[in-house]
Amino acid sequence: MSFFSFEYPYLFLLFFPLLYCMYKCREQLKSRYFVHLHFFSAKKSFLKLEWIIKIAILLFLCIALASPIVVDTLDPHNRVGKDIILALDGSGSMNASGFDFENEVSKGERLSRFEIAQVIASEFIQKREMDNLGVVFFGDFAFIASPITYEKNMVVDMLGYLTHGMAGQNTAIGEGIGVSVRAFKHSKAKTKIIILLTDGEHNSGSISPKDAIKIAQEQEIKIYTIGMGNKGEADEALLQTIAQESGGEYFSATSAKELKSVYEKIDTLESSKIKSREYLQKEYFYWMFLLGVAALLLFLLYRGVQK
After folding, report:
1. 200 closest CA partner among 92, 100, 289
2. Which helix (H) or strand (E) is 250 found in, with range?
3. Which of 79, 91, 258, 262 could form a disulfide with 251 if both were Cys (CB 3.0 to 4.6 A apart)?
4. 69 has which bridge partners?
């Protein structure tokens, strides 16, 4: 986020006493100090313009002294974040409704589990200011819905285009992890995280969860797993194993409110170090006003010589 400001705004207070002095302080010029006073003579038609230019010079000097700057608080080229993949289950069971008992997310609408997961995941993405994020979608097979990127709005948009059943009706957890690992191929981040959400059991795909865990371990990728739905629907034992062996943590969410708190807890556990301090990139523009002052002074000098 960028905004315009001044480093020393209090220096604007100089403008008014100096302006007063321009009108009230009389110059005392004598010929013994400068004999060519005719260079400073001016026609009456120019006097009004001359005063306007002098006031502009004074104003520009005050602005330059106040040091106008554009501050960028989120410079993506100088951040220290993490690369995160959200692996979302889009199988047929994710079309079930009745998950938002407290009306925490749906706001009166009848939303499916997948739609609720989309809303909460989108909020999570927007909060991760210093991180790169991507989305992997899995059902019978898995695919990268959004590559890892810093453009949060693009990731949220791509997430919004997904619907349950796009990748089939079954649940290929191994494929979901395998494709998520593949999404980190060009990642240079020291910390790589997969947040895998599912409401079912592994029953499809060519990659077993066991093999997928090994691949993640080799790449030093941490996996947080979330079992969504009523107790016994998701394979809690498998999800706990995936999380434990990869250095992550398992969470259970039986309602939209719990799911939201799970993402908030993961956000806290994996907060970027840079979040504890504010990084500022400043771009200075005082030189533009100094150039303006120089140009106006040259104009006054030119007009004086012409007289």
Report:
1. 92
2. strand 250-253
3. 262
4. 5, 284
Report how far residue 99's alpha carbon sits from residue 91's, in angstroms, rounded to the nearest whole number: 16
Distance CA 113, CA 272 (A): 29
Q: Report the candidate in 11, 9, 29, 21 with the shortest Cα–Cα distance to residue 54.
A: 21
Q: What is the DSSP secondary-structure string of 203-228?
A: --SSS-HHHHHHHHHHTTEEEEEEEE
pTM beyond cutoff 0.70: no
Query: Could you read off the pLDDT of 167-180 as tens digits, one per residue?
Result: 999 999 999 999 99
The pair of structure tokens assigned to 244 is 């434990």
Residues 94, 115: Cα–Cα separation, whole Å: 9
Distance CA 6, CA 70 (A): 8
Residues 6+ apart with CB under 8 A from 198: 89, 91, 171, 173, 176, 225, 226, 227, 228, 234, 239
Percent helix, strand, coil in the chain, to 5, is 45, 20, 35
Nearest Cα residue to 173 out of 267, 93, 260? 93
DSSP-assigned letters across all residues of 122-190: HHHHHH-TT-EEEEEEESSSEEEEEEEES-HHHHHHHHHH--TTTT-SS--HHHHHHHHHHTTTT---S
